[in-house]
Amino acid sequence: MNILIVEDETDLAKEITSYLTDFKYNCTTVGLLNSAIDKLAGKEFAVALVDLKLPDGHGISLIDYIKKKKISAGIIVISAIDELDTKIMALDAGADDFLVKPFHLSELNARIKALIRRNMYQGNSIVSHNEIEVDSEKFLAKVNNVPLSLTGKEYDLLLYFISNAGKVITKEAIGYSVWNSHADMDISNEIIYTHVKNLRKKLLAAGAKDYIKSIYGVGYKFDY
Amino acid sequence: MKLVYKNILINTIVSVCILFMGEYAIFYFIKSKIEKEAIEHLNLEGRILRKKIKKGIAAESFNNNIGDYIEVEKIIKPQILLPVITDVEMEEEWEEEHFTSKKITFDVIQNNQPFRVSITKTIDEDEDITGSMTTIFIVSGMGMLLVIILINYFAYQRLFNPIYILMREIRSFSITSLQKISAPPTSTVEFDIIGQEIGKMSEKIISDYTSVKEFTENITHEIQTPLAVINFKIERCLQDKNLTAEQALFLSDAAKAVDKLFNISKGLTLLSKLDNKEYTNLKEVNITGFLKQRLSYFSDFIDQKKLTVETNLNEETTLTVDPALCEILIDNILKNAIRHNLPNGRLIISLENKQLTISNSGETPDKPVEEFFNRFSRKDPSATLGLGLSIVKKIVEYYGYQISYSFHEGIHSVSIRFV
Questions:
Q1: Which end of chain B is more exposed for a tag (fewer CB within 10 A), N or C?
Q2: Of A9, A85, A182, the CB nearest to B335
Q3: In sequence order, which residues have a C-beta less than 8 Å from that of residue B37 and are 6 or more positions away?
Q4: Is A68 helix (H, G, I), strand (E, B) or coil?
Q5: Which residue is closest to B249 within chain A, CA to CA?
């Protein structure tokens, strides 16, 4: 699956590429709007990651272009601008998601996956991980076809873990993704711990393998 | 007191003083003149009388009781050869008036008979003089004073007009409008200099302000990308299978520090935007419903600390605010009340009569509670940013509300009056 990264900071683009490549994505990086338009003409992309402030113009004009040309790529804006007005403007123009820099790569990965699920697999919103199945439309998780009774947060956690399977995910990333921006609370570590513990218990009780590995002081890893 | 009135007051006081001093000076001057005249007159009369007596006119025939009072009496032996002038106090029994008089006395011999002659001249015009002098002085003095006041009033109004215009300009000066103070044209050198200097100062203030603003905006924006790079690199390092537990911890701490930098820059940006009055998006926000929603949002954190929540949210209160700011305001206070709460503590939220009070149990503060509103004022610098409450205060001031912090019997309370 192809992903177009429109980002003039090469360092950032490099790291994004390196993370996403591990999830079997094919990344193309461009630093200018014009080159983005060229690339879009040559290949079909599942998702375009668009920075807003670019040397040759504003990312919004690229979103307009994609929408006007009816290009099917989903659009995630990645920007350092954390303004409601800007977000609304981007979403109105046709962006599917807006991620404020700095973000965690695991978060970006999860958002890309969610977007692809929404855009490409209409009617098939099942994410599976060996014996675990998550239906992201019905908010339902199953182990060996037996439904699990998960709380909302536990469901979010599971989906986040599966999306970033095989990667070490920091507690901060989990806090940001599942508990939104209020993960800066000093008690969030304990909350994450409690929820992960409960999720793990439920998965094990349902007969799933013990995928969740705790990495001391850092976070968790969801094994394959 | 306005300068023009101050000036009029000083002028009036000085003029009145000079007026009275002048009146006294002139009064005594004229009085002494009158006395001198009287003495000269007496001397002249005395010489004439002496001549007339010497020529043989009967001395006693000069006795006179009307006008200048002349007394001629026989004496045995002449004693006063040269005329002597003395002051005489006279009481007129029928007028009950007190007269000051001058008296000249000399002896003269006629046909071997010595006579003592005395001529008394009354100077009783004292009070008349005082009266008329006072009238003249008060009338002319007051006239002068009035003229001075009028000149002061109108001329000063005119003269100081450029200063008043300048004052209005300074008062209406707003740093965010980026409009420098333009001095009114004036022919008065001093005012011209003041106006020009103030104009220059305002220009400097604006340029300093603009550069500080640009600096803050740039630094907060430009800092994001390098920090994001650091974060990404850390995340990538953490994926390394050969990482020791210790190294992983170091990396995780570094990532936390980077996160903190982000949040600081975010908080400072918010504060500077509040300073610049950049929040103009106003909407009706039902604060009661909003509080309930945020409470359920924070329920995980509340449960984790096993807090008892007591609410009094029966009154529907609506505010016209920027929803984003409202969220930051409520969230920051709630977060604070949860974060600094004691395990199994109380969280009390009450909204009554347009007053919101969020209270929590907590430790006794180690400094005056007002200081909690200062930036980077917190107990444990490693745990929190120390911007939360200063942002709260800024938002409260932004909308002209009132905020107070109190600590009473183990309960910290933040109260906001939405008025």
A1: N
A2: A182
A3: none
A4: helix
A5: A217
What mean pLDDT is predicted for residues A52-78? 92
Q: Which residues contact B55 (CB under 8 A, 6 or more apart)?
A: none
Nearest Cβ partner for B236 among A12, A18, A102: A18
Burial (0-12, 13-18, 19+ Cβ within 10 Å), B376: exposed
Asked if B125 and B34 touch (Cβ cutoff 8 Å), the reply is yes
pLDDT tier, B95 (very low <50, low <70, confident <90, very high otherwise):
low
Interchain CB distance below 8 Å, A9 and B301: no
- In terms of Cα–Cα distance, which of A54, A113, A106, A46 is closest to A79? A54
The ipTM, to two decimals, is: 0.86
Query: Which amino acid appears at position B81 of this protein?
Result: L
Quote the pLDDT of residue B57. 80
Length of chain A: 224
pLDDT at B187 over 70: yes
* d(C-alpha A139, C-alpha A215), whole Å: 28
Q: What pLDDT does B414 receive?
A: 93
Is residue B40 scored above 80 in pLDDT?
Answer: yes
Give percent of chain B above pLDDT 90: 18
Asked which of B273-287, B306-320, B333-347 is least confident by mean pLDDT, the reply is B273-287
* Measured distance CA(A153)–CA(A156) in Å, rounded: 5
pLDDT tens readout for residues B306-317: 999 999 988 888
Phi, psi of B18 (to 5 degrees): -60, -40
Q: Which residues contact A88 (CB under 8 A, 6 or more apart)?
A: none
Query: What Cα–Cα distance (Å) separates residue B100 from each residue in A153, B91, B127, B239?
Result: 116, 9, 11, 123
Contact B285, B319 (CB under 8 A): yes
Q: Coil, strand, or helix at residue B47?
A: helix
Q: Which residue has the tokens 């309960």?
A: B411
Mutate to test the interface with B, among A9, A168, A221 (most CBs of B within 10 A): A168
Helix, strand, or coil (residue A129): strand
pLDDT level of residue B82 (50, 70, 90 thresholds)? confident
Contact A102 B298 (CB under 8 A): no
Quote the minimal CA–CA distance from A124 to chain B in Å: 31
Exposure of A38 by Cβ count < 10 A (0-12 exposed, 13-18 middle, 19+ buried)? exposed
Partners of residue B301 in chain A, C-beta under 8 Å? 182, 185, 187-188, 191
Structure-block tokens of residue A97: 């998601």
Q: Which residue has the tokens 């009481």?
A: B91
Give the Cα separation of B336 and B311 in Å (integer): 17
Looking at the partner chain, which of B221, B239, B251 has a beta carbon nearest the beta carbon of A80?
Answer: B221
Provide mean pLDDT across the span A30-49.
93
Q: Give the burial class of A33: count Cβ atoms within 10 A of its Cβ; 0-12 exposed, 13-18 middle, 19 or more buried.
A: buried
Per CB distance under 8 Å, which residues of B are interface residues toward A? 221, 224-225, 227-229, 231-233, 235-236, 238-239, 245, 248-249, 251-252, 255-256, 258-259, 262-263, 266, 281, 297-298, 300-301, 304-305, 324, 331, 335, 338-339, 383-385
Q: A108: nearest CA in chain B?
A: B232
